[in-house]
Amino acid sequence: MIRSSAMRPTLLQCRAGMKSAVSKPSSLAFFAQHVRPFYRPARKWDESRQQFWWPKITALTTTAGHATISYPVPSDSPSEFVAPVNSTPYSNLTIGVVRETYPNERRVAITPQNAALLLKKGFARVLVERGAGAEAQFTDQAYEKAGVTLGEAKTVWTESDIIMKVRAPSFEGQISEVDQLREGATLISFLYPQQNKKVVEKLASRGTTSFAMDMIPRISRAQTFDALSSMANIAGYKAVLEASNNFGRFLTGQVTAAGYVLFRSFQSLSPSINQIPPCKVLVIGAGVAGLSAIATAHRMGAIVRGFDTRPAVREQVQSLGAEFIEVDIEEDGSGTGGSHSWKTSPKLITEEMIAAMKPGSVIVDLAAEAGGNCVATAPGELIDYHGVKIIGYTDLPSRLPTQSSTLYSNNITKFLLSMTPEENEFGVDLRDEVVRGSIVTYKGDIVPTAPRPAPPPPAARPAAIADKPIEVVALTPWQKTSREVATVTGGMGLALALGKATGPIFMGNVFTFALAGLIGYRTVWGVSPALHSPS
């Protein structure tokens, strides 16, 4: 493990096994050491607002045809784990995409469209295993048309500098994907390091630099990389469809030849009228998946209610047409960290609650992969528990493989292209908040988890204000009318004066700007900061 105390601004520590720095003069070394610093633009460090400085290049190393420029990192770096910033030109890197071997996994990490984008950016090759995208309706012909090189799995694993996957690589069984990974390669995928510690240890033993897409911080700048939110959105949508498929009635009311199927507003009429009320849906947790489920169920005509421990999501739940349920508890789940510890999920639905549900009811547990929030959940299965169907599928995003692969491919491609210390170069800069938050191993060293932002302090209750008599001066009807007339007259006069002095085009722009400003102000002012990024 490399720590900041071991680094000095004037000393570059190279990894064991790398060749020594180039000693003979060469055009590349001369350009890197003497010319390039004068053309490097000034930048500002990311959201921490600390100044981003560019040190003098201290060494130029070569390994297997790769030229790598190394910079020292200051010893007072705010990150716990510090390493030199090594950048490699895109033209020297090969991207690899393999077929997912996890059971029932149908997604693929890269779509043909994003593969073409990577080649356009300057990467040497994009290797894709034959048939990798078949389950997601991306044919080999589509990849070849995008300029991709198709090959066997062994070729992709051994010849790729950067491997992109959906699931974590396997390390047990007849075929160990971790053992096929090339020494010193880079891996980007869902890893869940807290849950898959053995996988992390195996990756470290291979000298791998790995990034977990599930550990990307939930900040505004990283919204385009947030694969968890993309998959949660799909999971919430698919959960409602699965529930509807296993539910024995309509979700909405309809008018049929057999009689009137009435909506909730007409349920107070005579009981002699034939009526089938709409389905009632309760969504526990109004995160990304919960909001997606609420919107989907409401569009299908169900009566939707939502609950969350964060008071800030009330407006979002209500804006989607659902009723927000309040429970008098002390917990407040507001926060911006987006941390996922992957411990056993808390049991929120007990046996007593299941027994109180009507026969034919359906429970969809989106936390089944982590143990489930329902006591009777069987991960990966659909069971009938005393007349209540409990769905514990762990592959809901994979059941919409084309859409899931498209969104995940966009996330992982933009994340890869964001790691560019220099233009058209790939490098790992641990001073970047997104990189530091998502990195798991760095060249064989297990990187400690980045500290998550502390939750906001509880809102202070307003102090009681003693009732004091307030003198109110009532306006007479004449004064009130006079003020209204004066205000309207002044506004119209100002508008006419501007119209006479400028023209219709300018006035149209002024009115558009005024309306846009008013709508934007009213939209953003009442939203809690916790909702400015996906939660």
What does this structure look like?
The chain is of the alpha/beta class and 535 residues long. Among the domains are: 163 residues, 3-Layer(aba) Sandwich (Rossmann fold); 43 residues. It contains 14 helices and 22 strands. The strands form 6 sheets. Strands 8-7-6-9-10-11-21-22 form an 8-stranded mixed sheet, with helices on both faces. Helix 9 links the parallel strand 15 and strand 16.
How far is it from the N-terminal to the C-terminal residue, by CA?
32 Å
Q: How are the strands ordered across the major sheet?
A: 8-7-6-9-10-11-21-22
Total of DSSP H or I helical runs spanning 4+ residues:
14
Decide which structural class fits the backbone: alpha/beta
Can you identify the CATH class of the domain at 237-399?
Alpha Beta
DSSP strand tally: 22
> How would you sum up the global shape?
globular
- Percent of sequence in beta strands: 5-15%
The residue-averaged pLDDT reads 79
**Please, what is the CATH homologous superfamily of the domain at 237-399?**
NAD(P)-binding Rossmann-like Domain
Question: The biggest beta sheet, please?
Answer: 8 strands, mixed
Low-confidence stretches: 1-79, 263-272, 337-341
Helix percent band: 25-40%
What is the CATH architecture descriptor of the domain at 237-399?
3-Layer(aba) Sandwich
Radius of gyration: 29 Å
The CATH topology of the domain at 237-399 corresponds to Rossmann fold
Keywords:
8-stranded mixed beta sheet, 14 helices, alpha/beta, nucleotide-binding, NAD, single chain, EC 7.1.1.1
Please summarize what this structure is.
This protein has 535 residues and is an alpha/beta fold. The protein is 31% helix and 15% strand. The strands form six sheets. An eight-stranded mixed β-sheet has the order 8-7-6-9-10-11-21-22, sandwiched between helices. It has a four-stranded antiparallel β-sheet with strand order 3-4-5-20, with no helix packed on it. The chain has a three-stranded parallel β-sheet with strand order 14-15-16.
